Amino acid sequence: MEGHKIGIMVLLFCGTILLGVNPTNAAKLCPDICLDYAYMTCPSSGNQKLDPACNCCFAPGCTLYLSDGTSTYCN
């Protein structure tokens, strides 16, 4: 029975490679945490202060700012 599990895992791993999916980046985990950001800026809007997203999962490429001036760049 253990051999079947390993065989299935190998088959799934090979299938993801053949489909062009990088198994190390296949799933991005987003925390279910919302910080109280004051505003955000994004390259598409220049320096305009936008209503903030809940966290970086919803604002890739943007910068989120807390009311104390601390900022977080979202990759």
From TrEMBL:
<keyword id="KW-0732">Signal</keyword>
<dbReference type="GO" id="GO:0004867">
    <property type="term" value="F:serine-type endopeptidase inhibitor activity"/>
</dbReference>
<feature type="signal peptide">
    <location>
        <begin position="1"/>
        <end position="26"/>
    </location>
</feature>
<dbReference type="InterPro" id="IPR051391">
    <property type="entry name" value="Protease_inhibitor_I20"/>
</dbReference>
<keyword id="KW-0646">Protease inhibitor</keyword>
<dbReference type="InterPro" id="IPR003465">
    <property type="entry name" value="Prot_inh_I20"/>
</dbReference>
<dbReference type="Pfam" id="PF02428">
    <property type="entry name" value="Prot_inhib_II"/>
</dbReference>
<protein>
    <submittedName>
        <fullName>Uncharacterized protein</fullName>
    </submittedName>
</protein>
<keyword id="KW-0722">Serine protease inhibitor</keyword>
<comment type="similarity">
    <text>Belongs to the protease inhibitor I20 (potato type II proteinase inhibitor) family.</text>
</comment>
